[in-house]
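Aim 2, interim progress. The first record below pairs a target sequence with its structure tokens.
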Amino acid sequence: MISSYVQILLIILFWNADCQIIPRIEECGLSCSQGIHCKSKPSGGIFNSFCHDAPASLSSMVLKSMKISTVMKCVQGSPCSLHLNIKGTLSLDENVRGLEICSFSLDTQQSQCINVRFTRKKSKMLNGKKVQVQFNCIEVNVAQHIYVTMKTVPHYCEVKLSQQYYVEDCRNSDVGKYIPACSAGKLAYNLDRARKMVTVNVSNFPRDQDYYVRLCHKWFTCEDAGAFAVIKGKESFKSVSLKYSQLLPCLCIEGWLALPDARRVQLCPFENGKYYTQVLWDNIVYNPSTQTLAWEPACPVLVMVNLCRFTKSNDHCEDIEKSFKNSSEKQVKYSRVDTHPRLCMKFTTKRGSWLKCPFAHGEFPAWKMRTAAVAEQIQVFFTSQTKAQFSVLVCNRTQMASCESLGMHHSVSVGDPVSITMSQEMCGSTICIQGWRTDVDYSVPLQICDTFCGFHGQSYSDGNPPKAMTHRMKSVESLH
């Protein structure tokens, strides 16, 4: 039962906060009680930032209290605006000439300071009396986080009041109804795929205000995907056409009033996966000087990335060990990568897997392995346009992606053949010669199999590029 009462109380409190009426003012200003004449002027806050030792006669409680609230300034013919209503109480003292009130926005890092001075003759007569100072001319924005300080003039050390304050947001019915920044507008769109254009229609915003519309790619924030367009408030036609380059799941339409810190509204119509196409995997870049292969996703996407070896026999791509990475960051990078045409990147999501083979078209130097059978020996040759180091071994291919070593590794340089002695027991369709580069971190292992029994005097090679280098596979599990 207690739990139910607490829940009801919380609902009432939140409902009251959202429905709280903001007090109205027509003019902002400064007022002081006790009939004291006071005046204000803007202050940079610099000269009063250094404190002085307080006189022995000055009470540390000379500043009694500070209260902050929000008021709404509404003048006929102009939009309403929000202001801080700051009330401070202090005891008049002959050592205090006035107050400095400062507000600092923790959102925009901007500050405003006001210097309040008292008439010296009147304040001396009321020495020791409490006086209330009220100031409500500091304009603020919706949902702003404000830090307010109140100091004496001159500023005495440890004589200071400070308070954090949150301005009401658009959930407050009064703010949401009368503050223009809360009228973010309503967006609708039409898509012309042939012209690659999105036509945006805007409604439900103040007709005398200009309105911005843009396309953006939504990450933690929405990043620009082209120039924004302006809908003039005086124009009767409230639509604009924006050109896009690619339809991506994170492509969004964003609109906001042409006001500082205006609330923004977003429409992301393509995030349902309909446009989850291969363009997501296109941004692959290779840097020859560092031998680095990198992919930057065009959109936030949960994907596992790995390198693999494309096989020409059955369009299968065998995973390369220790190359699996997820896309938790904005870039997936592999250092010291072999530029062989059969080295590919595999992208796996819950919707399936895609391959991209960036070296398939021959723009980068490739290497080939060739074998020749002479008597009971196999000679292995490597050809490459660049200097490279290789390893060779005889292995038993027990599975599609597994070849178990049957002997020692042989190190080979380009142009230097290596001879491997083969016994009769090593004959079989699963026996292979496997070679790979050892001067890089990620290399494609090439295999030449079933060449050793009754094929003396013949040569075999591998290393030709695959027939199809960019395609979608139905699923990782279905690849054999």
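The second target in this work package is listed in the same format:
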Amino acid sequence: MVFWVFGYGSLVWNPGFEFDEKIMGFIKDYKRVFDLACIDHRGTPDHPARTCTLEEAEGAICWGVAYCVRGGPERERAAMEYLEQRECEYDKKTLVDFYKKEDMSQPTLQGVIVFTSTPDKISNKYYLGPAPLEDMARQIATAFGPCGNNRDYLFRLEKALFDIEHEDDHIIELANEVRKVLGTAGKIDKKLVGPSRIPLKDNVPSLKLLPLQEAIATDSA
């Protein structure tokens, strides 16, 4: 048995398991949204963090990293057990096609596992649903848990996507809004938050991400 898993959130910069190969690329018809609660890593039951999940969106593409695990049943089982525990808020494993930049029309891999969540608050207790940008930013700016601050997760994801040269406009916009909240509170940790960003403007064809300072937050999901 050999399996591939697609990372689009913290798995991009911190896989946390042994793998044999990784490939940068994307999946189609999905986009990142911060609609999922985390109550045991970067949040608590009383103040859940917002973390990244995927939402179906025709025509969208989501860049990330595919990891391959091979080498026998025990090694593969250990990796999957680790992933299932880490991604416990995600209630579905979806199989997707994975593409590389070199050939964007034909999938490089098929049957790649991606952890996703059911967008329904009744059947999925971790699903928060969408919220106004300002409300999400306030929640992310203030939530924290055993593995660190919620904002660290967002800023690390922003930097990881910048490092692979495939920024996500929604992530940049949300991160900028969180910086506004921290600035208004007057408690900015510049080493953690990174430099100020250029304000978003209407009719800008593409959001550009400036170089970030090295992140210093704890390494976790």
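Residues 140 and 150 are 5 Å apart (CA to CA). This observation will shape the mutagenesis plan for the next reporting period.
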